[in-house]
Specification:
Blueprint: H1 4-8, H2 12-26, H3 43-46, H4 49-58, H5 89-109
Helix pairs in contact: 2-4
């Protein structure tokens, strides 16, 4: 049986998909929407995550297959070790030319 913690570990889109699949297989879960302006909307727009979890907890047998979501840690992007390669005189001169050209272009726009 799912607990609130197990259901809360999943993103809202996953919970919506599970309710949708459950509705297709076993029939619709009543939403009990009290606001008349929301009565024509689907559960996707009406219910936030907490309300959807409350709804799923009312029908735990439909969602017994849901397990705790485990997020794999992402591998960090390590920068290559070692000193940086010094810039050559040609690179420095090229940078100076680009800076001067940008200043001239900005001055021409004004």
């Amino acid at each position: 049986m799912p607990t609130r913690e197990i259901l809360a570990s999943h993103p809202l889109a996953t919970l919506r998909k599970e309710v949708s699949e459950s509705n297709k297989k076993l029939g619709a879960i009543p939403l009990n929407v009290t606001d008349k302006s929301d009565s024509g909307k689907s559960f996707r727009r009406v219910l936030n995550k907490e309300q959807l979890i409350d709804l799923m907890m009312k029908h735990p047998k439909r969602f017994h297959h849901i397990k705790m979501r485990v997020v794999a840690p992402r591998a960090s992007k390590a920068k290559p070790a070692g000193p940086k390669k010094p810039r050559s005189a040609a690179q420095i001169a090229n940078t100076a030319k680009l800076v001067a050209a940008n200043k001239a272009r900005r001055a021409a726009k004004k």
